[in-house]
Amino acid sequence: MGLHGKLFTQVSIKVDGDIFFHLFKHKLHHIKNICPQKIQSVNLVTGEWGTVGSVISWNYTKDGVSFTAKEIIEAVDEEKRSITYKVTEGDLMAMYNTFKLAVSVDSNGEDNVVTWTVEYEKKNESVPEPSTFLDFCFSATKEIERHYMLVPN
């Protein structure tokens, strides 16, 4: 296996895809209230929520371990309901030279599918593929789904 890779996971959700996309574009800081066991803080460092070039910092817990990340919003596509983030600082950068995360929402009638895609370059061959990071995203997506199924829009 090479140093460069791309992984993805898809999650079917029962809530409106627009609500999910809106959360990630405009209200990302609310995720800490929806998934408090996973996300401890999400802060806007510079820019505006959902705007290309904006910088966001994260404190999160994965598998019982605390992590930090700082990312820049690289792309926002309203039509495709997708957002791409590039991690620039934090714990992931100790293992990866580059790490990009994209989230998109596809809808077909009442069927909504969230796709998480990670593109990365490992620092060396001993670094694992970030599959557990995608597991984290999958699990967080299901928590967000449960939250919106319980809370009226």
TrEMBL record:
Alphabetized SUPFAM superfamilies for the sequence: Bet v1-like
Gene Ontology biological-process entries: defense response
Annotated signal sequence range: none
Top-rank taxon, per record: Eukaryota
Database matches in InterPro entries: Bet_v_I/MLP (IPR000916), MLP-like_ligand-binding (IPR051761), START-like_dom_sf (IPR023393)
Residues annotated as domain Bet v I/Major latex protein: 2-153
Name of the protein in its database record: Kirola
